[in-house]
Design a protein that fits this description.
It is a single chain. The chain has 267 residues and is α/β, with parallel strands linked by helices. The protein folds into 2 domains: 1-79, Ribonuclease Z/Hydroxyacylglutathione hydrolase-like (Metallo-beta-lactamase, Chain A), CATH 3.60.15; 105-267, Ribonuclease Z/Hydroxyacylglutathione hydrolase-like (Metallo-beta-lactamase, Chain A, 4-Layer Sandwich). The chain has helices spanning 35-44, 59-62, 65-71, 155-165, 181-191, 196-210, 220-226, 235-244, 253-265, and strands at 3-10, 14-21, 26-30, 48-53, 76-80, 92-94, 99-102, 105-111, 120-124, 135-139, 142-143, 146-147, 173-176, 218-219. The longest helix has 15 residues, at 196-210. It binds zinc ion and fe (iii) ion (FE). Fe (iii) ion binds next to helix 2.
Length: 267
């Protein structure tokens, strides 16, 4: 069923998203970091708020939930079951494989611990906005050319999460939680200095940012080609990790990801 997806910049560099059922004008909001921009976007779109889809408990993603629910008490707040006490007003507790819906638009929950233990993504198999490509809302798990810091999980968890997300169809649009893509590509170029895909993407992103445009969404294909965390099993990334930490087991992509992630934390 057709969904209209509207990025809503929040706070300094966060993105919330409206997922609007075109048939009913009912909307879910993904990760409302603050209420004001979300209310303004709902009014612009003539959409009625029906659900909050939280990807994880961090305040920059759910800081707007309480005010939105005060204003729209009938709206359901979706969160991973382990985040019941950490996502404000969480009422619909979900786990991997569950389905959530707004109007006629259905999304599948993918549990991807790593950044936090209760991190989830929302995958719409056919967003139907012209070319039937799917859409996935990844919060702080998969970013444009990067991934979230490992605050609660392990490198193995993050590796598994990124592997699942990038196993979605190549045309799937990736709607991530922060505008970090330009900085992430500077790091990607340090990991894979000879990568034409990284260089070409960095040029595209620099042009978009110079025009004041968002870099969300990317696609699964782009992340496979130029995201060093997704590419932890590639010989170039393994070699970069071994140059940083000669003892790392290059045959273990989770260990390689751990080295790359620790490098990025100080980059
Ligand atoms: Zn976060
Ligand atoms: Fe965040």
């Amino acid at each position: 069923m057709p969904a209209r997806i509207v990025p809503v910049p929040c706070l300094k560099d966060n993105y919330a998203y409206l997922v609007i059922c075109e048939a009913s004008r009912r909307a879910a909001v993904v990760d409302p970091g603050e209420p004001g921009p979300v209310e303004a976007a709902l009014a612009r779109e003539s959409a009625t708020l029906a659900a909050v889809w939280a990807t994880h408990h961090h305040p920059d993603h759910v800081g707007g939930v309480a005010a939105l629910i005060d204003a729209h008490p009938e709206v359901e707040v979706v969160a991973h079951r382990s985040d019941e006490a950490r996502v404000p007003r969480a009422g619909r507790l979900v786990d991997d494989g569950d389905e959530v819906a707004v109007g006629e638009v259905r999304a599948r929950v993918i549990h991807n611990p790593g950044h936090t233990l209760g991190g989830i993504s929302y995958w719409i198999e056919e967003a139907g906005d012209g070319d039937d490509a799917g859409a996935v809302f990844t919060g702080d798990t998969l970013f444009g050319a990067g991934c979230g810091r490992l605050f609660e999980g392990t490198p193995a968890m993050m590796h598994a999460a990124l592997a699942r997300l990038t196993a979605l169809p190549a045309t799937t649009r990736v709607y991530f939680g922060h505008e970090y893509t330009a900085a992430n590509l500077r790091f990607a170029a340090a990991v894979e200095p000879d990568s034409a895909a990284v260089a070409a993407r960095a040029a595209r992103v620099a042009e978009a940012r110079a025009r004041g445009e968002a870099t969300t969404p990317s696609t699964v294909a782009e992340e496979r080609a130029s995201n060093p965390f997704v590419r932890a099993g590639e010989p170039t990334v393994i070699a970069a990790a071994r140059a940083r930490e000669p003892g790392v087991d290059g045959a273990d992509p989770a260990a390689v990801l751990g080295v790359i992630r620790a490098w990025k934390d100080r980059f």
